[in-house]
């Protein structure tokens, strides 16, 4: 095959192409295919003097390639796009490494994603919620190879086409679909001292039909950690203290299949099937000392937490003429199951507990797009039906050795949520430099909880309007100023609502609150990007204000059980939370083979609690400054050798009653391209000079002080190998965003 590089304007003249949005385009054609194209392409009345006389007759053009240098990070009117396929340092890695490098995004020690420090963020795959990210995000990211990701969209103020999103925004992973005939795929594996993962994928296209399949697995060695906590009065008198020596291991698997079929040039069917399963097994040896008694009580508790998620979606997309627009019909079904069991031995007594949870979610959606001259219109309606259930069974031993069902603590909990929604959005330019996008979304929410032994039946109806506005000004070719406003909502998920009280630990317990209200968020942002060093780098800076009403926060309180003090964590709508923040990130190519990236987020935490919670925290009505930083360097050392290193540091994170410890991490990777650059061998070192981390926590109320520490091993070494095979490996996919976007539920740890 030969390749000729020719100007884009010449390509238009020669082949009559109407659009070209890819950065690198390669077309392979046999003589029959060229003959078919020649019969369909209109001939221009005037043939320009291109200097390529009788190109079609004298030369066999087998490939056309267009090259345009674009930055890895691209700033759009309503989103920031990280082009993963353009970042050479991410080859041979996983989605976990991708997330580490995303601007404004951070991952906690346990893999929870945060956008501008807020874990109330939705993770989509191709524009839809997925079972892959509904469960344990950290494990899901490790099973998704970076080669399957074309780009990641970071949306801090989602438009009205999306569900009325929460405080942080959306992270949308675009994986793509095969666009050329033939088969291609990848195989990757990482063997580490802490954890290992494997993944493989294969994709193919025959005519109008394309299919992609992938399988991933992750597992860990038993990890030993120590959790200590101490509860004391304000005067320093110990109420109780506890030491927990814990060992846990994990094993997860996920399977994905995506199919598309082009019925004709204007009609397409897209279907996706995803499944993932994770098993977490934990063994705990606890020692609790009660200060008022001076006695020590030992306990042994084993937990087993299998969880599985499944989703199926299908989209019908029909494009009409340019004026008539496009319509899409979408359906999605998601199912989640978890079966948490524990067995505890407390001296001469024992207990077994089970919490069986199930959630079903059905979504139907219709979207319509149309353009009238320079005005773009979007309309849509949507229905989401969620059904959540939880069954709890507790069996306890008696003094005479019998095991009986504890009816006071055994129950069933049912919860339904229906959301009706409709939206309208418009976009239009003002002159040559200003673009405006505005929208309005209506959502009707119906909440219902079934009556049980512990909960009275209740029903709640709400109707809400959510406006959205963004204005951008292009004041130079590579610089944009933009302003946006949005109102959002965040509904609590089962994690926050489930009234099951986990009493496996006799001293530290947790319970959900089925009476929680949804959070309401107002968000205003002003941002701008600038070209640096003659377009070899870029800088983006933004300031924002966010206000959250009915803010959901964890609340610690002391209670008694069995004559002893128990620390209970539940959740409450404490009042209003206000944040002022600034985000800055930059990406610079100093010279060939040397790239630098840096991010920083600084924001305030300030709560204004309702009167009933004024005395639940000694930190009420106080303002705290929080920051997150990231710096990365990747080097192309030549002859296929690469070095990639990054370091990030997060300040302590505030809560209503206290704070969690600061977190930092240093990662170093050495890589070598092999097998004609189709494969990569790698060595990764995490925290080479720190074997373990001590993550402290602190909470203070007018009645007690709670101090804790979580010590876990962190230093690790890993060997990795990834191989891409098949036809047109680098450019065999193009992204295809799905239509359904369910992103309104506040999930665990957010």
TrEMBL record:
Transmembrane segments: none annotated. Residues 318-723 form the Outer membrane protein beta-barrel domain. It comes from Sphingobacterium thalpophilum. The keyword Signal applies. Residues 92-170 form the TonB-dependent receptor plug domain. The keyword Transport does not apply. Residues 1-26 form the signal peptide. Keywords: Cell outer membrane, Membrane, Receptor, Signal. SUPFAM superfamilies: Porins. Residues 35-54 are annotated as: Disordered. It holds the Pfam family OMP_b-brl_3. This is Outer membrane receptor for ferrienterochelin and colicins.
């Amino acid at each position: 095959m030969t390749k000729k590089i020719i100007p884009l304007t010449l390509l238009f003249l020669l082949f009559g192409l109407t659009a070209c949005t890819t950065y690198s385009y390669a077309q392979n054609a046999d003589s029959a295919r060229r003959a078919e194209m020649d019969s369909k392409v209109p001939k221009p009345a005037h043939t320009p003097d291109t200097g390529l006389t009788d190109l079609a007759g004298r030369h066999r053009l087998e490939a056309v390639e267009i090259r345009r240098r674009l930055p890895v990070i691209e700033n759009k009117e309503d989103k920031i796009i990280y082009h993963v396929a353009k970042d050479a340092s991410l080859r041979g890695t996983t989605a976990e490494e991708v997330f580490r490098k995303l601007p404004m995004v951070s991952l906690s020690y346990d893999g929870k994603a945060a956008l501008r420090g807020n874990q109330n963020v939705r993770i989509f795959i191709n524009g839809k919620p997925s079972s892959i990210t509904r469960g344990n995000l950290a494990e899901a990211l490790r099973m998704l190879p970076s080669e399957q990701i074309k780009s990641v969209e970071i949306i801090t103020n989602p438009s009205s086409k999306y569900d009325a999103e929460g405080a942080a925004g959306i992270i949308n992973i675009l994986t793509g679909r095969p666009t050329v005939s033939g088969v291609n795929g990848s195989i990757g594996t990482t063997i580490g001292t802490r954890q290992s993962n494997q993944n493989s994928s294969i994709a193919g296209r025959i005519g109008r039909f394309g299919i992609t399949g992938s399988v991933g697995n992750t597992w860990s060695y038993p990890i030993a950690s120590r959790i200590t906590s101490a509860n004391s009065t304000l005067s320093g008198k110990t109420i109780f203290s506890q030491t927990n020596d814990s060992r846990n291991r994990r094993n997860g698997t996920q399977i994905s299949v995506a199919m598309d079929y082009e019925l004709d040039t204007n009609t397409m069917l897209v279907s996706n099937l995803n499944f993932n399963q994770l098993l977490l097994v934990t063994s705990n040896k606890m020692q609790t000392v009660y200060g008022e008694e001076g006695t020590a009580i030992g306990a042994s508790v084993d937990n087993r937490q299998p969880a599985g998620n499944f989703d199926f979606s299908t989209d019908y997309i029909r494009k009409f003429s340019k004026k008539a627009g496009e319509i899409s019909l979408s359906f999605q079904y998601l199912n989640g199951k978890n079966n948490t069991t524990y067995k505890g031995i407390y001296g001469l007594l024992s207990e077994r507990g089970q919490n069986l949870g199930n959630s079903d979610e059905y979504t139907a959606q219709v979207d319509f797009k149309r353009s009238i001259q320079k005005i773009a219109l979007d309309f849509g309606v949507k229905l989401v039906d969620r059904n959540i259930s939880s069954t709890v069974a507790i069996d306890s031993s008696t003094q005479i050795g019998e095991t009986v069902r504890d009816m006071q603590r055994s129950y069933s909990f049912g919860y339904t949520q229906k959301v009706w929604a409709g939206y309208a959005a418009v976009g239009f330019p003002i002159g040559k430099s200003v673009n405006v996008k505005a929208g309005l979304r209506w959502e009707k929410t119906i909440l219902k909880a079934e009556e049980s032994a512990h909960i009275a039946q209740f029903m709640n109806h709400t109707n809400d309007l959510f406006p959205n506005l963004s204005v951008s000004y292009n004041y130079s070719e590579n610089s944009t100023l933009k302003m946006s406003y949005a109102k959002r909502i965040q509904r609590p998920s089962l994690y926050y609502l489930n009234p099951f009280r986990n009493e496996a630990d006799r001293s530290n317990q947790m319970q959900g609150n089925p009476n929680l209200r949804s959070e309401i968020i107002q968000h205003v942002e002003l941002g701008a990007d600038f070209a640096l060093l003659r377009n070899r780098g870029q800088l983006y800076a933004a300031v924002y204000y966010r206000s959250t009403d009915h803010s959901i926060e964890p609340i610690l309180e002391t209670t008694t059980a069995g004559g002893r003090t128990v620390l209970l964590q539940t959740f409450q709508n404490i009042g209003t939370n206000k944040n002022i923040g600034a985000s800055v990130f930059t990406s610079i190519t100093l010279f060939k083979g040397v790239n630098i990236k840096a991010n920083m987020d600084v924001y305030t935490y300030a709560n204004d609690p309702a009167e009933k919670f004024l005395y639940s925290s000694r930190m009420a009505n106080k303002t705290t400054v929080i920051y997150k930083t990231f710096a990365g360097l990747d080097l192309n050392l030549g002859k296929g050798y690469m070095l990639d290193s990054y370091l990030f540091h997060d300040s302590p994170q505030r809560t209503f009653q206290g704070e969690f410890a600061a977190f930092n991490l240093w990662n170093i990777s050495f890589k070598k391209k092999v097998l004609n650059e189709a494969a990569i061998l790698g060595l990764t070192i995490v925290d080479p000079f720190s074997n373990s981390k001590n993550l402290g926590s602190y909470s203070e109320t007018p009645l007690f002080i709670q101090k804790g520490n979580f010590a876990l091993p962190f230093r690790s070494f890993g060997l990795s190998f990834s191989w891409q095979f098949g036809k047109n490996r680098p450019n065999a996919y193009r992204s295809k965003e799905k239509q359904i976007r369910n992103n309104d539920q506040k999930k665990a740890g957010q």
